[in-house]
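Q: Trace token order:
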Amino acid sequence: LGKRSVRRARPLLDAVPRVRQLKRQPITTSFPSGHAASAAAFATGVALESPAWGAAVAPVAAAVALSRVYTGVHFPSDVVAGAALGAGAAFAVRGLVPTRAQHIPPA
């Protein structure tokens, strides 16, 4: 919904060194970052189940998000919005599906 409603163009690659540019540039609109959303949703979901594992995967999710700006395919605000949407989705699913800690074992 975000990409279709906002329709934000991707950043110009003029300032991004060629070595940092992706070989195949995305053709979809820029806002929000789907990669950042997916990474944040996964990391948040893992953290809700296991805080220790969540702390382990959080840097990987952050690296995915930062790489989108580093390669010039997203503006920083695209990545922040994507990460917020992803984390929000994880919390929304948590409200629908209880975590192991919230689950009451059968008697």
The mean pLDDT is 82. The first helix runs from residue 2 to 6. The two ends are 43 Å apart (CA to CA). The CA atoms of residues 37 and 82 lie 4 Å apart.
